[in-house]
Amino acid sequence: MTAVGGLPRTVLRLHRTAGIVWAVFVLGAVAWLVWLNQVTADSVRATLDSCPRNSGICDAVWASLDYSGPTSWISTLMYYSFWAVAAWAGGSLIGRELESGTARLAWTQGVTPTRWLAVKLAVPALLIVLGGAVFVPVYRWAWSANRDLMGDDWSFPDVFAAHGPAVVAYGLCALAVGTLTALLLRRSLPALGVSVAVMVVLNQYLERQREDFWPTVTGGSGRPKVTNEWWHVGDGTYHPPSHFWPLHLVETGILLAVTAAATTTAFWLLRRRTR
After folding, report:
1. Roughly what angle, to the nearest 10 degrees, separates helices 81-88 and 166-185?
2. What is the DSSP letter of 105?
3. 180 within 8 A of 265, measured Cβ to Cβ
4. CB 180 within 8 A of CB 262
5. Which of 210, 83, 67, 227 has the alpha carbon at shortest distance from 150?
6. Within a 10 A sphere around the Cβ of 188, how many other Cβ atoms?
7. In whole angstroms, what is the distance from residue 204 CA to residue 267 CA?
8. For 31-80, how does the pLDDT look when each residue is reduced to its tens digit (9 = 90+)?
9. Which ranges constitute the DSSP H helices of 15-153?
10. What sign does the dihedral 138-141-146-152 (CA atoms) show?
């Protein structure tokens, strides 16, 4: 019982560096967003107001990049953080312990393989969810607070994901895919590479299919006025801003379904190999 009860602490201790890096990354991104909106935005607006009208390109154009550029980079880094999660899950969390034999050692200390894997997944999954719960509301506030300074609209891949639970779902999916890959290959470096490759392919597929996750509307006579906030996806067809949540939740659901399938398969495979 002592080994079982201490397993979460052991996981946290073994992977405390990864946990600290994740916490610093999320909190740093949140702090940067707050700074951009509370300090940088005012400076950019002051420069814009001082720029003579109809003067062509002036310093105000470059000043606006001081706000829009970092904000875009924050969403991009958070969106593609699933690459790091997949690599870490396949190469370190599971792959390295299977390759080195420390997993089998743990199984002889009163910890069943199933419980071992459950804790191995639960601890990082909780950190991913908590990180998303902190980041997403702050990002939504930051992105909408100064829309006139931003060039990206809601259909951009990173903006789309960072606006809701999809960014968390990508992380959880990467965790599950990395775990399954490590159990299949039982080698840390191959599992690392394959895990990232699988997630990249899945991500690219979902991005290409995203516009078809919800029926489009047709612009023209008798239809609502099309604005710059509408996502133009074809000849005369659009996704208005009201389609964000249906599109977003469908993609989130697909990712969670893949996560559940990969997790279930991982437990089945582990039980089969440790009978």
Report:
1. 30
2. H
3. yes
4. yes
5. 67
6. 20
7. 27
8. 999 999 888 888 887 777 777 665 555 555 555 677 888 888 999 999 99
9. 16-35, 41-50, 59-79, 81-88, 95-100, 102-107, 113-145
10. positive
Bridge partners of 234, per DSSP, are 237
Six token digits for residue 147: 């829309």
- Angle ∠(155,161,166) on CA atoms, nearest 5: 135
Share of the chain above pLDDT 90, in %: 50
On whether the pTM is more than 0.85, the answer is yes
Q: Residues 252-258: what's their mean pLDDT?
A: 97
Q: Cα-flanking dihedrals φ and ψ of residue 239, to 5°?
A: -115, 115
Q: Which class for 48: exposed (0-12), middle (13-18), buried (19 or more C-beta within 10 A)? A: middle
| DSSP character at residue 222 | T
Q: Extract the tokens encoding 222.
A: 């008798």
Round to whole Å and give the CA distance between 99 and 190: 11
